[in-house]
Amino acid sequence: MKERETRRVIPTDAPPTAPARLVEDFTPDLIDVGAHHLCPGCGEPIAIRSVMEAVAELDLVRRTIAVFGIGCYTAFSNNLDVEVLQALHGRAPSVATGVKRARPDAIVITVQGDGDMVSEGLQEVLHTAARGENVTCIMLNNGVFGETGGHMTATTVLGQRTKTSLEGRDAVTHGRPILLADLVARLDGAAFVARCAVNSAGNVARTKKVILRALQTQASGAGFSLVEILTMCPTGWFVETAEAPDYLADSLATVHTGGVLKDFLATSPTSPSTTVP
Amino acid sequence: MSIPVRTAPARRLLQGSEAIAEAMIAAGCRFFAGYPMTPFTEVLEHMARRLPEVGGVCMNAESELEAVGMAWGAAATGTPAATGSTGQGLSLMQESLAEITLARLPLVVLNMARAQGDYWQATRGGGHGDYRHIVLAPIDVAEAVELVQLAFHLTATWRNPVLVFGDYYLAHTARSVDIKSMHFGPPPATDWALTGETGGTGQAKLVSFLGSAKQRDDVGYDLAVHYAACAQHTARMLGEVTPMLDTGMTQDAEVVVVAFGTPGSYVRAAVRSLRDEGVRVGWARPVTLVPFPSSALAGALQGAKAVAVYENNTGQMVDDVRLAVLGAVPVEFIGGVSLDSSGFGIAPDLDVAVLRRRILEVVDRHR
Known about the structure:
The complex is a heterodimer of chains A (about 280) and B (about 375). Chain A is of the alpha/beta class and about 280 residues long. Chain A has a single domain, classed as Rossmann fold (3-Layer(aba) Sandwich). Chain A is built from twelve helices and seven strands. In chain A, helix 2 (about 45-55) crosses helix 8 and helix 4 (about 115-120) crosses helix 5. Chain A is globular, with a radius of gyration of 19 Å. Chain A starts with a helix and ends in a 10-residue tail after the last helix. Chain B is α/β, with parallel strands linked by helices. Chain B has two domains: about 10-180, Thiamin diphosphate (ThDP)-binding fold, Pyr/PP domains (Rossmann fold), CATH 3.40.50; about 245-365, 3-Layer(aba) Sandwich (Rossmann fold), CATH 3.40.50.920. Chain B is built from twelve helices and 15 strands. A seven-stranded mixed β-sheet of chain B has the order 3-2-4-5-7-6-13, with helices on both faces. In chain B, helix 1 runs parallel beside helix 6.
């Protein structure tokens, strides 16, 4: 019996004291089906969950149109109880622009990865930000093409081994990574830009806060907002699942450093006074 | 004292680009996105000026890729939307045009082409996967005003992109036209369109080229089911959209000349002048390139000894004409690439004397 207690095995020699908890019990309201085919240890479901929780908390459920790019996270595009428009790889910001211009009252959110936004469609996000388009772009950055099986993207950090940079990314052969949030923050049309991560409970809480702030920025009409979220990809990084959060902290996060890079609402005299910690 | 008010004349002298823009607005278009390129540019200019006046939006896209993306987004909200370019610009858009079709979205696409080298791009599609676009090819500005409005009706009805195939002559020729709003009956329902308002109902809408059925018990999209449904829809659309063919003097013609788009008017003039001299020739012009008016064309060619096809390209529609007649009549190509130094599609060959000579050569060979 002692062994059972230490290993927290559910006792089967007595009737259960509480009903079994199923996947659905942990699934946010706006995610229809709890099951998905993403790998164990993947950070993307945490990020999607955070976005959906923020939409619900700000009471934006009946206004939201999410525009999805193509990556592993596309597993969620037909799985949400908010309206979704599926876009091509790289093209979500222009599609979101069309949605927002045609329906200015909608809250428009893009979900893209680093391969999608920074490699394939960099000019889309830059021009959308420069126009001050009043949409929120969420970029899930794991520094690798996860869906194709671990290939180098524009955000892969120097030294990172991928299937297309076998000896590690080196600047001479592959160039240097693009720091997307830093790039977008330099554009006048961007009203809110932040980079965060989902590799620890504290970082997940901070991620939720910046997503809330980005959506508030859009709801107030202040202009373009970007949240770059560093996510674990143990499969694409070729590391043990349990080691992925630390690997993120030691590699990706040392180059793509976290923080709020721009917060127009905090600096505008007429805006709400709350700031992102 | 009162000055009698004269109502403005319905007819106005308009450049083709402006007439097409006015026709789009008359058809209800309220979103347009484009990137300048000759000879498409003036359509964008006029839409940029006119759409805000009617409460619409015109976007200066950073490239054709974003132009079609923006139009895609607006179309998904049920807003009548259009984009366009030349064939070169449409090449850039093809990935999106293919997927917009598989997402079952309405969109009008203009090709203000440089000459006629984009027939295959327009009718076969330059994109990936199994899809077709309805393609309309006006002969002149007046017909373009009608076909552009028909395009908006067809795209709303079938939720499938419709391409209007014009060129430099159509875009840059000024004609006196009457922009009358055409009525095609009650507009189809747009209950599929995204509004943002169905979130949280358990039935939130999804518009996806991977299939718009929501996931319920299992994970993922079912592409086999979706593509089969798309194929079925395409077949129904191609079967039910009325193919259109314009013909003249084909009844007793020994040689019928087939052409599409603006060169059709030069061919018609050449045929008429030969008729005046007693040469038994006629002309036929497919107005819908997809669906191709194969049966009507085969009917018009009955009794003819030969068919001559004029196109300002290396002979792309020839394939469709041959498929229409299925070997019953010899089909000869009398066109060819004809451009001035600009490359915009101004064709030295579009000259009645040149066309007469080529048609007569066919007549002589088949006497």
